[in-house]
Write a structure and sequence with these properties.
This protein is 31% helix and 22% strand. The strands form five sheets. Strands 1-2-15-14-3-6-8-7-13 form a nine-stranded mixed beta sheet, sandwiched between helices.
Length: 316
């Protein structure tokens, strides 16, 4: 147990750290776009969480932060000065997220494999971690040659109160191969019966990553699949609940929330990604006079010669 002086020192350091982190992102302007049930906040996640989201107001938070591995986000590199400065930043917004959750709320956290152990340990005294989930996916085009290549990303499934939280297991059932495929009989029961054909998923989830030619693809280096967010939102929220994503990216969490009849709040610093969210949620059709539409992919674009040919054909 910490004595009162140690607690005071801890809270003082935490306030100073929050102030320093907010100062680092003071250049980020804050702009808010709203529809009836959805909000897009363009600005820094820490500042938005601290000042724009009411305490204990959110039912489900999905967090997919920058991983500190050097990804290029529209010209900005995802790389901190040191591992410790990155983790301190993570601890800051994690504390804010927990404050914004209702007493019955749920938090899903994604992170790089090398960082998740630190975040896992940090959260253990603040929330209850019910499941440690592996999102397994197919290999990328670049194959590792001198080590075992990474084919998964970890998630934590956390709740504020382990005795009272939302979990709609019947809404996310998957095939149980023992009963559905192998049709085995459970002879341990008083009356032998076939094993169930459907079950709640285990903690290894197989979803393909979003590829360039997929319909759901948006121009973002770490877009998460709709199927992944559908499972999370169906399982851990109910229609009318509020879903928060502090690092919204392409706003897939908000997009799925809208489709499933939930409310959403998405926070994003990058203006180009905010435009994707405004379009996907139908909040705006134009932004600063520019029509918002999906960027054509290379295979959808016509060469000048083909465009002229197509125009000539359409004119007949």
């Amino acid at each position: 147990m910490l004595d009162s002086q140690s607690v005071l020192i801890y809270h003082t350091i935490h306030r100073v750290s929050l102030s320093l982190i907010q100062d680092r992102y003071s250049w980020c302007r804050m702009e808010i776009f709203k529809s009836d049930s959805h909000m897009v906040i363009m600005g820094d996640a820490v500042k938005a969480l601290a000042h724009e989201i009411p305490e204990a107001s959110v039912d489900l938070i999905f967090v997919d932060p920058p991983y500190n591995i050097g990804k290029n986000f529209n010209g900005r590199k995802d790389k901190w000065e040191s591992e410790s400065s990155y983790l301190q930043w993570c601890y800051c917004w994690l504390d804010l997220c927990i404050r914004k959750l209702k007493s019955t709320g749920t938090l899903y956290l994604m992170a790089a494999t090398q960082n998740m152990p630190y975040l896992d340990i940090y959260l253990r005294d603040k929330v209850t971690i019910l499941s440690r989930i592996i999102w397994h996916y197919d290999s990328s085009g670049v194959q590792a040659k001198r080590l075992f290549g990474s084919l998964y990303e970890p998630l934590l499934f956390c709740v504020k109160d382990r005795r009272k939280y939302t979990f709609n297991g019947s809404d996310i059932l998957v095939e149980a191969k023992t009963g559905a495929k192998r049709k085995l009989i459970d002879y341990r029961k008083s009356t032998p019966a076939r094993y169930n054909c459907r079950k709640v998923p285990g903690n290894v989830w197989n979803f393909p990553r979003v590829r360039y030619r997929m319909d759901e693809y948006e121009n973002h280096p770490t877009q998460k699949p709709v199927a992944l967010l559908e499972r999370i939102i169906r399982a851990s929220s109910n229609p009318g609940d509020t879903i928060l994503d502090p690092f919204a990216g392409t706003f897939t969490s908000s997009f799925v929330a809208k489709r499933l009849g939930r409310k959403s709040i998405g926070i994003e610093t990058d203006e180009e990604y905010v435009k994707i969210g405004l379009r996907r949620l139908g909040i705006l059709s134009h932004y600063k006079g520019e029509p918002l539409h999906r960027e054509l992919r290379s295979y959808q674009k016509k060469s000048p010669a083909n465009q002229q040919l197509s125009m000539a054909f359409e004119g007949k």
